């Protein structure tokens, strides 16, 4: 069975994810390798970003509120630049060349502006106070929710994506070249790698007030990793805002399944904040600690 996100935004309207084809056509030995190999945790600095895009490169803008507008480079334009400038070892080039949104444990769709990312940014821009807060965006890609937090007064924003190439070629240019000026007083850091390593290797002196994440629950195999990041990194009075489709056909994930998983763990209360009606509905979920007296360091289960 083929799996397609079926989104309608400009950057994602022609994208499709045939995850069953990827896994079913692979030999058994390769299937096991796909499941076991993960990308190591790494901090990416602004100096690591060598992207120098032409001034007339296509830019998309998203009007989140009357006063908050986020800009990002057009993903298709970035893909074309990477195809010209990168060799065949580039994970992004490999994925885009075969018109895939995902190559498991190699590329997780970071060069696509997913609808739920826009949903999440639009929601939090109106309904969440970011003033002087410490923010983490997990699975950031273009970084639109995290950039929104910057523009809304966050003190610190950390951007995490599975693929370091996405951070260097897309996230950092979006943050530094399009959305940062002298009026934005925010410290940003960038991290690549698998979530399973994030909590053990991040060197934060304090927990995150808010964690933002969109389109990250399509694969149920990753739910435990997300849960572990939340339990180890979210402040005891903090909040997670998660945006996703109600169902991801072909892979099995979705809001309902993730809510059941989190309820089974018993650490967080889950509430649907908003539902966007569509062929496949999209939802925004809020998660908070059930017990604010909890010692987070002992709760990684």
From TrEMBL:
GO terms for cellular component: cytoplasm; nucleus. It is found in: Cytoplasm; Nucleus. The keyword Nucleus applies. It is an enzyme of class 2 (transferase). One of its GO terms (biological process) is methylation. Keywords: Cytoplasm, Methyltransferase, Nucleus, S-adenosyl-L-methionine, Transferase. Pfam families: Methyltransf_16. One of its GO terms (molecular function) is protein-L-histidine N-tele-methyltransferase activity. Gene3D superfamilies: Vaccinia Virus protein VP39. InterPro entries: Methyltransf_16, SAM-dependent_MTases_sf. Its EC number is 2.1.1.85. Its main location: cytoplasm. Belongs to the methyltransferase superfamily. METTL18 family. This is protein-histidine N-methyltransferase.
